[in-house]
């Protein structure tokens, strides 16, 4: 008998709840906000859905391009956190770097939506930051790489495998003008930035392909995708039957750029003339050419924002 009473009581409770829920739903159906939602067309709902997806994507991009490294902060001021990765003058950095800072490690504290360093927002790295680009072997071991450095007439802002059998190396000391000092170099550690493939292999420069020598990645015969050689013969030639290759990764400085690694901006206007390639110096016998590195919205070159052209320029 007790069991039957309990079952009857539960049935009454369920019936009561159903009645209350039905009453509440009936009230909700006549609320202004419910009537408004119910009157939306399918096109409006589609627009709302697309807007929501777009908002999520924007937030995701902002988060991904402003990833901070916990604990790594700058020493000065409010000790802002470093932002990694950041792009500076065409090179991608995933840790503190000494480039353009007299051998002292620094990082960016603000980047734009593309992850490019925002001028003026930086600081010297504190003691909690991961060690920067250091050598692990070679003539000088366990020393900070010094960037930029000039070697055989070319400026390097990151480790290079040039003339080193595909092994990344850097200068550990430069003279007053930034030139590599003989025997002051070493092999770069795994954390150093450098031009490599998407799979992480080191590019070999220079390499000769079909009679043309390349000192940086090229799109030749690769459907517009940048690639580099991973092996060459003793003469620096790459052969498809003997050597490997790979598509270049994000740390490579490619295209028309200046000796300091800054990409040239084309087209640009200067003195009323529009230029789509590097410009030869006027009234001189020099072979030097130059380009704009920054332009106004009108395309006019920003006064003083120019440098001499280096690799990748026609």
Structure notes:
With 314 residues, the protein is an alpha+beta fold. 18% of the residues lie in helices and 20% in strands. The chain contains 3 helices and 20 strands. The chain has helices at 2-28, 32-38, 42-65, and strands spanning 68-73, 81-83, 86-88, 91-93, 106-108, 122-124, 135-137, 149-151, 154-156, 169-171, 185-188, 207-209, 212-214, 227-229, 245-247, 268-270, 273-275, 279-280, 289-292, 306-308. Strands 7-11-10 form a 3-stranded antiparallel beta sheet, with no helix packed on it. The protein has a 3-stranded antiparallel beta sheet with strand order 18-19-20, with no helix packed on it. Strand 16 and strand 17 (273-275) form a beta hairpin. The longest helix has 27 residues, at 2-28. The N and C termini lie far apart (99 Å). 26% of the residues are buried. The model is unreliable at 61-66 (pLDDT under 50).
